[in-house]
Amino acid sequence: MTSQRLSQQLAFLTEADQLKTILRRTSLIHDPRKENTAEHSWHFALMALTLAEHAPVPLDLPRVLKIALIHDLVEIDAGDSFVYDTSAMADKREREEAAAERIFGLLPPDQAAEYRALWDEFEAQETPEARFAAAVDRLCGMLPNYKNSGGSWVEHGVSAARVTERNRPIGVGAPALWEVAEGWIREAVEKGWISE
Amino acid sequence: MTSQRLSQQLAFLTEADQLKTILRRTSLIHDPRKENTAEHSWHFALMALTLAEHAPVPLDLPRVLKIALIHDLVEIDAGDSFVYDTSAMADKREREEAAAERIFGLLPPDQAAEYRALWDEFEAQETPEARFAAAVDRLCGMLPNYKNSGGSWVEHGVSAARVTERNRPIGVGAPALWEVAEGWIREAVEKGWISE
Ligand SMILES: [Ca+2]
């Protein structure tokens, strides 16, 4: 007999599988197909684990990993909002709030509250863990573009100034990683992939 | 200036991206395409996080999450060995050892040793964390088959007896989850998806 609690958890985990069908704008590093948000979340968590020592203060690493694993689940309902698409970004918050309500709401109430709090923490960007997670999430998004001669930056004609502006939070959450990111942007301009 | 240490970490994370191109035998729950190992690793980690309370003893959850995130990286070189394919399973260990050596070896030595130890821990199945991780990994593999009228069990003509035999480790790492799994297998037989 499966308890109601376990049934709710399995219903949530079944629904979560949908994240594998949500496509992002970036491609894989070694393959031209677009990346889905589930595999991105894995790469993000692995990156956070591997680069944690570069955070400016000691972190509660398990909380960073949990944030990485759950923060994008809202995209199942709200879709991936391309960071350079101003209209999609406008009502992003509202769409994602409703999604968080529904998706985390599949869980037993205490877990729904826990996951919702992790998601809120990431959105609020007030803790070192949330800021480091945001830094790594963005670095993770930049990596395939850097490795693929500009990738989606070139595809969407984004300038170095906009890439810098959008990714500046890396410098807040992880200054050492922002140095790396700035080097990538500089190199992308030098190699003529993107304009200043 | 990127330090040598950070360069090694980024080289590892770039290589890790390949896991998104390794296909498993199971399909997604809501989509017929085959699942790749990176998105599986994410689902596995989310499942471990969500179901941790069903472990028979209190766990070091961060270690379980780390195991989930890194244990399948060897498939980049060794491929996914289908659990019902006896010949692929025969030299699995050897192929995966070499892969672990190369892939974790991209990291700075202390991290290479840490990730290798996590992988060895999972393979050895001697700690509650490794056993719980193995249980969740298998439950994660069963879920899409259960949700899709037998899925790859039907595709490969696997009997209930073999599914039971292959997934029995769930009962070792998480008896409460094995009860669920046994219920799924019983239902699969009752509904005529698979034979006894
Ligand atoms: Ca996102």
UniProtKB/TrEMBL annotation, chains A, B:
The enzyme's main class, written as a single word, is: hydrolase
Under Gene3D superfamilies, the record lists: Hypothetical protein af1432
Q: Which GO terms describe its molecular function?
A: 5'-deoxynucleotidase activity; metal ion binding
HD/PDEase domain: from which residue to which, for each copy? 33-151
List cellular component terms (GO): cytoplasm
Catalysed reaction equations from the record: a 2'-deoxyribonucleoside 5'-phosphate + H2O = a 2'-deoxyribonucleoside + phosphate
The protein's required cofactor(s) are namely: Co(2+); Mn(2+)
- Oligomeric form and interacting partners: Homodimer.
One matching Pfam family: HD_3
Q: Which UniProt keywords apply?
A: Hydrolase, Metal-binding
Q: Look up and give the organism this protein is from.
A: Armatimonas rosea
State the EC number(s).
3.1.3.89
Source organism superkingdom: Bacteria
Q: What is this protein called?
A: 5'-deoxynucleotidase
Q: What SMART domains has UniProt attached to this entry?
A: HDc
Q: Which SUPFAM superfamilies match?
A: HD-domain/PDEase-like
